[in-house]
Design brief:
430 residues, FAD/NAD(P)-binding domain, 3 domains, seven-stranded mixed beta sheet, five-stranded parallel beta sheet, 15 helices, globular, binds flavin-adenine dinucleotide
Length: 430
Amino acid sequence: MKTIAIIGGGISGLATLHYLNERFAHTHKIVLYERQSSCGGNVHTLKEGDFLFEYGPNGFLDNQPETLQFIKELGVSVEVIEANAKAKKRYVQYKGRLVAFPLDPLSFSHFLPFTYIDSLRLLIEYFIPKGDNSNETIYNLVERRCGKAAAEYLFDPMITGIFAGDIKQLHAASAFPKLVEMENKYGSLLKAFIEQRKQGFQKPRMLSFKYGMETLIKVIVDRYKHQIHYQAIESINDIKADHIVMATPAYSASRLMYDRHPNLAKTLDEIHYAPIAVAGFGFAPDAFKRMPKGFGYLVPSNQHKDILGVLIESNVYAHRAPEGQWMVRVMMGGRHHPQVINDDHATIVSKALRELEKTYGLREHPTHQWVKVWPYAIPQYEMNFPRLRAKIQEELSHIPHLSLTGNYLQGISFNDSINHAKSIAYSIRL
Ligand SMILES: Cc1cc2nc3c(=O)[nH]c(=O)nc-3n(C[C@H](O)[C@H](O)[C@H](O)COP(=O)(O)OP(=O)(O)OC[C@H]3O[C@@H](n4cnc5c(N)ncnc54)[C@H](O)[C@@H]3O)c2cc1C
């Protein structure tokens, strides 16, 4: 019987395990190695009393049918919950104030950071001819089409919320392919927006699980527990298998392959990661002087703060805090402020509380607090990324029986990780 080994038990490795079982359960031996004492990687939910703290992802969008099908196959669709309607309202911090993020082009004129000229500049986008977007940063693309204010106050915070990245370094076609597609197909982003609305396009819904994102991890681990080994792999030379799937982050894959595939290892090691520190707090019902509204807020990088954003988790999803109480996460660091990982937990907590005090006014201390620091949180698809990805593919094409999967290849989200894992599992030929 042939053996397939997966290294890494985050969502990428676990999804690969599921899809390989779908294909080969009765014909091949499939094993997964995870170096921690539990699986999940970035996905980790902590439950303390009725508070639920997500160390990593807190949800996923419903626009990827693969993820919904995957959840269905694992029998946990009933556990899926949708974000509350009131969480649709998002804010951007501007000079210390929270301003509502405009949800459609007509509300741009009321968006505080925009002058009259900025709003007009945005509307003129409709008439600007299509440019060459094949090798641009997100900032350049947006500034070229919509103006500086749109790049700095609309796209910068949005990208911060996804990548914790630097919009002036992220490669548009790799990090935000939809934006590039919109310009290519419609010639204008505004036109694309209008056309998509005419065609009945619905904004994707945000989903999570009633008991947190780790629900999905637990169900996969439970189903395939006899195939999972909790063991750190030091080198792929230690694995005896007919095919190996590396489902670790790029820098770990690099270390594991250095001896055997030094060129591939060097390329993998060049992929940048942005760090994130997450401070979570439970608060009593009357803890805030000013009621935290909606989803929370994001901080544009030109406000020069090491706070990326504040998420009012108990507004977004049910079951995140006991009735009437608050669960809040403050995200810090990112590509602009990597020094956050040098802060000790007490410093992270006090910075986060200072932010909450300034924004909402604190009457009381939090009743609960948690901190998680991710030194390598999110891979950054920066300007060197197309070259690195092409080099990785070229190197891999000479190495039979080795596959790579993970969020550093075809999209950084939870959905992307599942999608990529499926395509890898179905591409293996033995
Ligand atoms: C703070 C944060 C918030 C996020 N929020 C969202 C969100 O809201 N929505 C969203 O869609 N995405 C979000 N993401 C991204 C999402 O979490 C990731 O894309 C996804 O979880 C990546 O999974 P992965 O399996 O590729 O990698 P990982 O989760 O990093 O898993 C890799 C696994 O490999 C294991 N491993 C490493 N080396 C070895 C070795 N030598 N031997 C054995 N095992 C090894 C690790 O222990 C780990 O378990 C967030 C990420 C972070 C960090």
